[in-house]
Each structure stands twice: as structure tokens, then as C-alpha cells.
Amino acid sequence: MSTADQRSGPAELSRRANRLRGRVLRAIHLAGAGHTGGSLSCLDLLTILYHRVLRIDPAHPGDPARDRYIQSKGHSVEALYVVLASRGFFPDADLDTLCRYRSPLVGHPTRKTPGIEQNTGALGHGLSVAAGMALGARLGPHPFNVYCLLGDGELAEGSNWEAALCAAHHRLDNLTAIIDHNGLQITGAVREVMNVEPLADKWRAFGWEVREVDGHDFETLCGTFDALPFAPGKPSLILAHTIKGRGVSFMENQAGWHHRVPKEDELRAALAELESTAATPAPHGH
Ligand SMILES: [Mg+2]
Fold this sequence. Notes:
Layout: H1 10-31, H2 36-53, E1 68-71, H3 77-86, H4 126-139, E2 146-151, H5 159-169, E3 175-181, E4 184-185, E5 188-189, H6 190-193, H7 199-205, E6 209-214, H8 218-226, E7 236-241, H9 264-279
Helix pairs in contact: 1-2, 1-3, 1-8, 1-9, 2-3, 2-8, 4-5
The structure holds magnesium ion.
């Protein structure tokens, strides 16, 4: 299983994620559709998964020994497409066809796209599929790992909690769930729409081993992913505190940017801000 750049360190991953943010915004702008805020909040997590953690080979996307990634919050598919293209699953130019007639890239993940394991976007189903895959790995010859990204808003769906029970019951320590905990969903603050707190306590009570992290701190995230599985015989949960719209000041923490599309001037301002971030040396050499 190839992963030439699997050893990417925090500084390189951070630079790459910054570039990919711009790519997400340009693709959404061209498409005239997309989920801007949530794609930017999970992009750092996806960059680490695809450029450090997952054992995958873009030349053999169906390799039975590959790790599996399921993006349960399917609406943030633009982040996933951009990262898959950066990993070589399909040409970067495909991103400019997003949501157009006959484009291979539609508004939610489908298995027709190379590298995508499961159709998602009807929320609340990804973790059940991921748990089934993790259980399946026990029965087959390949001891692969399964990773599933959940939104915090989608945790209002009861099916997540059935899957959480099942994964702990079957002691699936080859399964990791990651919550993109940006505190917002389409209609406002998660706490106000359907309070899901206290999340860490809830998952621990369901039998998972939990780590709470800053979902944009590459150094911490690399160490956290490197420490998987957190406990033998238990599924792992990474509760990643993130910022919706991360990286573009006028998009950050704004529920309105859930699926708003940047206009020409907004795109220009956002790209300029990302460029200036890239030019600023981060503290501690990150
Ligand atoms: Mg959210």
C-alpha cells in the first residue's frame, strides 16, 4: 500500500491545507453551489487523514487492504473532492466541473467518484456503515482501519447513537469517529437547534475512548492520529473543536456561510487573506 507522502509533518500539512482552502472556494464559486463553511471547518482533518494517516493507493482505489474513510457529513463534499484530487485520485481540473451537467463530481459523495467509499448526505448513516466495515475487517484477511467524519449537527440523528452502541459492543478498536465540532448547523447554533452536549461524556458513556483536540492545530492532531487506537478493545473518538468557515475571517463562525457561495469580490478577498496567512510564519515553526 503506497503512501509516499504519508509521513507529511505538521508544517507541510498546514501549508497544504491553506492551499486547499483556496481550491475549495474557487470550485464552489465556479459551480455556483456548495457548502462553504463546513468544508472549511473539516479541511484540516481531511488533509491529515489523506496525506498522513490513511493507507491508500490512488492507483488502486479498490485495493481490499486499504483503509476506509466515510464522510457522514456528506454535504461538505467540496473539501473531500479537493483533498482526493490533491492525493491523485482524479485530475485537479475535474474540480472546475463541480455540479455541472455530466460532471463526475456532484453535490454529495457518491461511490462513482474514485476514492469515495459510500454515498452520504442523508445525515446520520455514515457511522453505521463504518461500523459494519470495521466489523467486516475482522472477518477478512486484511486488518484495515475505518475512519468516519461526523458533523455535530447531524448527531441529532438517533441512528448515530445506535451505531455508537454497536461499535463499542463489538469492541471495534479499528474504528475511529471524528466529530467536526464547529458548533453550528444550517439553521444556527447546535446548542439551540438540538443540544447534543456534553459530547465527550456521552461518547465515553457509550463505551468509546475519547480525545478532545483543537481541530486546526496540526501538531496536536498529528500526535492524536498517531496514537490510534486510543485503547485496546474500544472504538476511538476524536472530538475536534473546529471553526466553521475557518481561514477566512468574514466566513468564520457564521451559520449563513453553511451553503452560501462566495461572489467574485468575496472570493478575491478570501484568496488574498489565505495568501497572507500562508506568508505569515506560524509560531513554533508550525
Ligand atoms: Mg456543525
